[in-house]
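Figure 2 data, in text form.
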Amino acid sequence: EVQLQACGGGLVQAGGSLRLSCEASGITFRNYAMSWVRQPPEKKREGVASIYSQDQFIFYADVVKGRFTISRDNAKNTVYLRMNDLKPEDTGVYYCAGARKDPRLVWDTYEYDYWGRGTLVTVSS
């Protein structure tokens, strides 16, 4: 059974930081590009960041560039999202997702192979 377990969400004041983690099991993690996707309240989901399977390429949504950092540890089957200088508009449920393909192909379609359950991030003003 494939599982993506995301954790690390919580309530933080604007300007604060959080680090999300997502541990995968049931897949050969190093073969998957991993992404973070968020669902703000009453808004459409949006891609936040993606990292290729071997760290050879990383990209971010414009609204988080310079504040968020995605990374991965293939030995631990885990992908991370470090979020600094959080803003109220960063509030939402954050999901990790995996794709055995170029993540640019699924950035807008969200047709990932696997999804985690999500972890809630709430940023107060």
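Caption note: Residues 1 and 26 are 5 Å apart (CA to CA).
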